[in-house]
Amino acid sequence: MSRGIIFLVGNGGSLKMAMFESLQEKLQNIFTNLKRRGKLSEEDVNAALREVRMALIAADVNLKVVKKFTNDVKEKAIGEAVWDSLTPAQQVIKLVRDELVELMGATNQKINIADSPPTVIMMVGLHGAGKTTSTGKLATYFRSQGHHPLMVATDIYRPAAIRQLEVLGEQINIPVFQMGDKTSPVNIAKGAMKHAQKEGLDIILIDTAGRLHIDEQLMDELKAVKSEVKPHEVLLVVDSMIGQDAVTMADSFNKAVGVDGIILTKLDGDARGGAALSVRAVTGKPIKFVGVGEKLAALEPFHPDRMVSRILGMGDVLTLIERAEQSFDQEKAIELEKKIRSQDFTLEDFLEQMEQVKKMGSLQDIMGMMPGMAGNPQLKNLEFDEKQIARIKAIILSMTHEERVNPKVLNASRRKRIAKGSGMEVADINRLMKQFDMVKKMMKSITDLEKGKHRGIAKMPFMR
User: Fold this and answer.
1) Does the pTM of the predicted model rise above 0.85?
2) Residue 79 forms part of a structural domain
3) What distances in angstroms separate CA 363 from CA 60, 132, 204, 254, 434, one per listed residue?
4) Which pLDDT tens digit goes with each residue over 368-396?
5) What's the CA gap between 286 and 107, in Å, rounded?
6) Based on the domain organization, do 198 and 87 belong to the same domain?
7) What is the CATH number of the domain that holds 62?
8) 248/125 same-domain check
């Protein structure tokens, strides 16, 4: 059985969860007020839905989408007579949740993989949306799924565009096909098809040119490439940070070129979330992937139900487990579990776990996937950042092997030496030791989140 044991440490400051931050807070306040009322009248439900409507509008969700959403929830509330139920507030929350899931596409939509390889995917979008980076991220994702991708540079207009894709390819060790900037994108795409078949590469990712705005020349070029290579997927890369402009742009691309799916980038920095909540409803095209960070592994398949759970503060345990499985060394995790159960957990193990956590992405993002963490008043004065991990690492590395294995030997003079060696204060050493002692005590409560399955993740300690 493989387990990842995660420890998150924080210091004084403020916790900022950028993704859907405003909407998340408002919806949780609305639902908290509903729960306090106990039995609800029809007017109570209507008033709550009006607040939900205003929260969605403030989150920059498309007005037509908001109107349809609230009307659908209201109709179902009337049909189920939630005010007569034993748990009316829970009924309303469930209706809102279910409608949000439906709004965002109901289920995860996978990439259409060709029965006979190679699978051809065209990446389209405006300049600055993150198209080239998303091409690299998608190539990394496909390789993790056992495929052999090829990235194709057809942007012959933007200075250094070809080189940018080549540098990405070198970073992730994935081949890049290019023919310079003196031939047409159509010829490059044709050449890439032949190259992929010759080399046995089963996924072709065509990085097309973007523009600062939608124009006829851009659309005609994309149509020509699409007509020539007949892609199995046309993926539109959209910057979620531009809100409703993203929705308008997606609609225009879909009508002009034809889009099969959408990649939303920079979702981790989108405090409102209007694009994520509107783009599928307006275009009718599914969001297939979301970019949740700058790292090349920070691209995730989009699961509407999981995203809604995060918006409503219910966490996203499944994605958290999947990330842990990808990031944690299985043999080390099993070995660590044995140490914890035998109370043989050391500061060296503690440091190793923090290094593993860093592979999973930003600590802020991890926090957002934990049930009940968003909006938790106890977390208002916490800051989770990599600087804190770096400080802890400096302290532990300034210790001798004996001190890391047996912290009980850390007397006043040793702590003073460690503080000087790490550039910290003695108070920082004392704080770390309190955190470490708390971890050891809490390890007694380790359980699997998925009982009876082959995978799991330990309960997570949070420390000031």
Assistant:
1) no
2) yes
3) 26, 26, 33, 35, 21
4) 555 555 544 444 444 445 677 788 889 99
5) 9
6) no
7) 1.20.120.140
8) yes
Lookup: tokens for 277: 């909540």
CATH number at residue 189: 3.40.50.300
Query: Of 347, 378, 280, 376, which is closest to residue 69 (Cα–Cα)?
Result: 280
For residues 346 and 405, state if they share a domain.
yes
The span from the first CA to the last CA of the chain, in angstroms, equals 31
Q: Are strands 119-124 and 287-291 parallel, antiparallel or unpaired?
A: unpaired
CB atoms within 10 A of CB 7: 22
CA–CA gap between residue 443 and residue 337 (Å, rounded): 9
CA angle 18–373–437, rounded 5-degree value: 115
Owning domain of residue 53: 21-103
**Tokens 């795409």 belong to which residue?**
189
User: Measured between alpha carbons, how far is 431 from 384 in angstroms, rounded to an integer?
Assistant: 15
Place of tokens 């590469």: 201
Q: What is the pLDDT of residue 421?
A: 93
Residue with tokens 């708390």: 438
DSSP E strands in 141-276: the ranges are 149-153, 176-177, 203-207, 233-239, 261-265
Interior/surface letters 275-290, b for 16+ CB within 10 angstroms, e for the rest: bbbbbbbbbebbbbbb
Distance CA 173, CA 129 (A): 23
Residue scoring higher pLDDT (316 or 183): 183
- Give the pLDDT confidence of 409-449 residue by residue, as tens digits: 999 999 999 999 999 999 999 988 887 877 666 554 443 34
